[in-house]
Amino acid sequence: MTRETDLPPGFRLIILDETESTSDEVKRHARDGAEEGLVIMARSQTSGRGRRGRQWSSPPGNLYFSLLLRPECPVTEASQLSFVAAVALLEASAALLPPHSQLDLKWPNDLLLFDAKVAGLLLEAEGSGAEHPDFVVLGIGVNLVSHPEDTPYPTTDFAASAAAGITPEDMLQSFCRYFLRQVSLWVDEGFEPVRRNWLTHARGKGNDITVRVGNKQITGEFVDLDRDGALLLMTPDGDRQRITAGDVFFGSENTDAAGH
After folding, report:
1. What are the two backbone dihedrals, phi and then psi, of residue 92, each rounded to the nearest 5 degrees?
2. Is 227 part of any domain?
3. Which of 11, 67, 245, 253 is most buried (most C-beta within 10 Å)?
4. What is the pLDDT of residues 21-45, one digit of tens each?
């Protein structure tokens, strides 16, 4: 069903009790010509997914939604929207959480609350072979009242961090407001101010981290994020590594379990 909410102008919300995947729902609407700004939110998902097709645990009570975007730019630039959304997600969460809450961004697409994953996002582009995407779907999941336990990295939820009572609608409204600000900055000034904002909140910046890329692990100092959103590491032997995909781990986190 379609419901009117306090979302900013330009957004249209459909709320479903249950679906396999909100991103798949948005894609179906996009292929039928839906306009930018369509948001589909579900109370629960049966086949929610994260990066690389990994399952995203989606029980009732948390926020699961996908947003349709139709950026007029090359695919390479459209990928920058994941960083635009990550900064907006952090700011939207900070607006609802207690002032002492420690929020950080983990490359490439996670939001951390007190060093534990509380939200993630997935950006998917679809096109007919042209340089410009036909559309982009931004999928976001936020742990509001529960979180998965069997993960190779720490996880948490808002309620577990003294922030009970935040509803999916509260979080969605906050995100949309902050996303509009960040996407306007990106459109007007390009990726550089977004990149700087992202780095301001980046977990591990200036410290040694480990990145698992396939079956290989690379350890080095997290020195920067380049203009394409790639992670730049300086290894102990002085090599500068540019990483476009991988799983980041800090300190004693279990890198052996990554990707399962």
Report:
1. -65, -40
2. yes
3. 67
4. 999 999 999 999 999 999 999 998 8
211-214 long-range CB contacts below 8 Å, 24 or more apart? 211/243, 211/246, 211/247, 211/248, 211/249, 212/246, 212/247, 212/249, 212/255, 212/258, 212/259, 213/243, 213/245, 213/246
Q: Map tokens 């910046």 to a residue.
A: 205
Q: 149 and 21, same structural domain?
A: yes
Helix 168-189 and helix 81-96, axial crossing angle in degrees, nearest 10: 140
Residues 215-249 pLDDT 10s? 889 999 999 999 989 999 999 998 999 999 888 98
Report the number of secondary-structure helices (H) and strands (E) in the chain: 5, 12
Closest by CA position to 145, among listed 163, 157, 162, 161: 157
3-state secondary structure of 201: coil
Range of the domain at 76: 12-200
Distances (CA, A) of 134 to 31, 65, 186: 9, 20, 19
Helix (H) / strand (E) element for 126: namely strand 116-126
What gap in Å lies between CA 229 and CA 226, rounded to an integer?
A: 5
Residues 25 and 64 in one domain: yes
CB within 8 Å of 133: residues ≥ 6 apart? 71, 75, 78, 125, 126, 127
Dihedral sign (CA 43, 46, 49, 54): positive
Nearest to 116, CA basis, from 203, 239, 200, 217: 203
Alpha-carbon distance 57 to 157, whole Å? 12
Residues 150 and 40 in one domain: yes
- Residue 30 belongs to a domain with what CATH number? 3.30.930.10
> Is pLDDT at 95 greater than 80 in this prediction?
yes
Q: pTM here?
A: 0.90
